[in-house]
Design goal:
elongated, alpha+beta
């Protein structure tokens, strides 16, 4: 059994992965970090989520998540940082 597992073959290229998974691979998603602050401006929570759409659309989704958190009172203010923009930009 061990030899069978070791001889599974090579890793799939991105093109091969798309064929196997029907086009669904992680290049279509990005990770964003959401930072929640209280009314004194202190950071109260950080959430890292990898399910945002890639590109500027994901940044818009992260912004919408911040707006939603503030509208229900989960945070006084919120900021986000997405891979698309470059961490820290």
């Amino acid at each position: 059994m061990k030899k069978q597992i070791l001889n599974l073959g090579k890793a799939l290229s991105k093109v091969e992965q798309k064929q196997v998974f029907g086009g669904y691979i992680d290049e279509f998603y990005q990770t964003c970090k959401l930072y929640y602050y209280n009314s004194e401006g202190n950071l109260t929570n950080t959430v890292t989520y990898g399910g945002f759409t890639s590109g500027s659309a994901g940044s818009a989704e992260a912004n919408a998540s911040c707006v939603a958190a503030m509208s229900v009172g989960s945070a006084h203010s919120c900021s986000y940082d997405c891979e698309y923009d470059g961490w820290g930009n």
